[in-house]
Structures are given as structure tokens and as C-alpha cells.
Amino acid sequence: MTAQRVAQNIWMPRPDASTSQMETVTNDEQMVERALSGDPEAFGEIVRLWERRIFALAFGMLGREEDARDATQETFLAAFRSLRGFRGEAKVSSWLHRIAINQCITRQRRAKVRGETALEDEAEKNAAVFALPLDASPARTAETIERSQAVRRAVCSLPPDLRQVVVMKEFEELTFQQIADVLELPLSTVKSRLYTALRQLQMRLQKFGDAGTAAIERR
Fold this sequence. Notes:
CATH superfamily: RNA polymerase sigma factor, region 2, helix turn helix motif
Number of helices: 12
CATH class: Mainly Alpha
CATH topology: Rna Polymerase Sigma Factor, Chain: A
Order of helices and strands: HHHHHHHHHHHH
Distance between the termini: 10 Å
Largest sheet: none
CATH architecture: Orthogonal Bundle
């Protein structure tokens, strides 16, 4: 069971493939300029372009659909309030990702202070729903849910700084440099965190016993 095989078994909602195709620096800059000039539709375009991707990131970090939707809404509210502070030194995508990550981390810290724990059953069900193919057979569905639950528990058990790197690299498919830009970390630190995260996932899945290891074996 390799770290790469572990990463391939972590399930989250995928963003639309068209999202990455639509992004260009020119369009980003134009939308921001239009929003700053008072165009009421410009910021709405930014939201429509990036909402699914930001939701996918938040869901991966928080594990609950309701929390992810709240974090997504808070991300765009924060972005709107700080729009005039955007200087174009980074892409709009990197800027939004950074805001989203901060929102997710803030929510995680608040939950920890209040003594709350993630509702694992709900998170596991959400993970399975997002992952199920439309033509899944009953046997395949059961296998999918079993594998999803094992990996979801493992992912949720990772420290936030490791989990966010896994989400961004393996599911958002950002490059190491993009992740480094978003997190404002050295490139070497990002690579080290991903390696550590995948190794920890590997060990956690082994600890889950048959449900975890068998899920990887069948992959």
C-alpha cells in the first residue's frame, strides 16, 4: 500500500473541470476592476466562477456539507469586504483559496474551543454521496461506502495543516508552487507536509484494520 494509492482513495466533491479552463489572469483582473468600478454583476461572476471549487476545498477540510457551505459563503463575504485590498500580486484563485483556508481554520479552532467534534456519520454519508457513480450496483455501492468511510475517518484525523495540503494537492490539483503561494509557505515545507500527510494516512488506514486495508487492496 503506497502513499499514492492512499491519496487516490480520498474522496471529496470534485470541482467542475471547466473551472480551470475558464481562468485567465486577464479575466481575473478585468472582473476585479469591474467590481471596483461599481459593476454590480462583476463580483457575482467571480462567485459563479469559483463557488464550486471553494466549496470542494471547504468540504475537504471540514468534512461536513453544512459547514462547507457556511465557510464558502463566509469566504465570498470576506473577499467582497477586502476587494479594495486586492493588489493583483496573486491570482484571484490564490487569493480566494487563502481566504477559504483561513475561514476553515477559524471554524476548526472555534469548534475545538467549544469542545465540538465532527459528526463522523454525517461526514461519511456526505463523502459517499459525492463519490457514488450514477450507475453503481448495490455491491459496488456497499464497497464504495465502506472504502469512503475508512478513508474519511483517516482524513478527518489528520491535523489541519496536513489535511489542507492533501486536499489542495490531490483534489484541487494545485501545483506545489500554487499551494506554497496560497499558504505563504516555503516550497520545501509544502512538499514535506504532503509527504508526512500521506504517510500518516497510510498508517491510519492500517490501524482501521480490515475496513481500511481491504479498501486499499481492492482499489
